[in-house]
Design brief:
Blueprint (H helix, E strand, L loop, with lengths): L3 E11 L2 E9 L16 E3 L6 H13 L8 E7 L5 E8 L11 E5 L7 E5 L1 E8 H7 L5 H14 L1
Parallel strand pairs: 1-5
Antiparallel strand pairs: 1-2, 1-3, 2-8, 4-5, 6-7
Helix pairs in contact: 2-3
């Protein structure tokens, strides 16, 4: 059975445009990667855990911000690794400078048996939908189009 993750895509309307809040993974592997490296805050959950509750927990752990409000289902996609990621969008706002991420241990350099503690997320940033489409992991880009469609149908 593939691993499962759940995540949240926070959005806002700013100067008549839709912006989304994406995070950049921490650690040396991602340090010099930008385009295609950004992601929604997300994380794995167990078989007994509610995916939306897991998404809210992961959002808080990776950003320090609390996700509240009306959640719009964006569905599930399969990442290149085979992991299934289920996502929801919600309206919100935050100051990226206030982001506080939890940490995790990674082996670095690879196969060195040396452990390095890194933040799961090293930064967060607001992007317009067009800019976000070039920065988000390619598998997650469809969620941006879906969000645009959902919000345009509300108007």
């Amino acid at each position: 059975m593939p691993k499962r993750s759940a995540g949240l895509l926070m959005y806002r309307k700013h100067n008549e445009t839709i912006e989304v809040f994406l995070v950049h993974p921490g650690g040396p592997f991602w340090a010099k990667k930008d385009l295609g490296a950004w992601t929604i805050p997300k994380g794995e959950y167990g078989p007994e855990e509610d995916p939306l509750a897991a998404a809210q927990r992961e959002f808080h752990e990776e950003t320090g911000f609390t996700a509240i409000g009306a959640f719009l289902s964006l569905g599930t996609m399969r990442q290149a690794s085979g992991k299934l990621v289920t996502a929801w969008a919600f309206p919100g706002d935050c100051d990226p400078a206030q982001l506080v991420s939890n940490t995790c241990m990674v082996e670095w350099p690879p196969r060195s048996k040396r452990q390095l503690e890194i933040p799961e997320v090293d930064q967060g940033r607001w992007f317009g939908l067009e800019d976000a489409a070039g920065r988000i992991r390619k598998e997650q880009a469809a969620w941006l189009s879906l969000l645009r469609e959902m919000l345009s149908s509300e108007e």
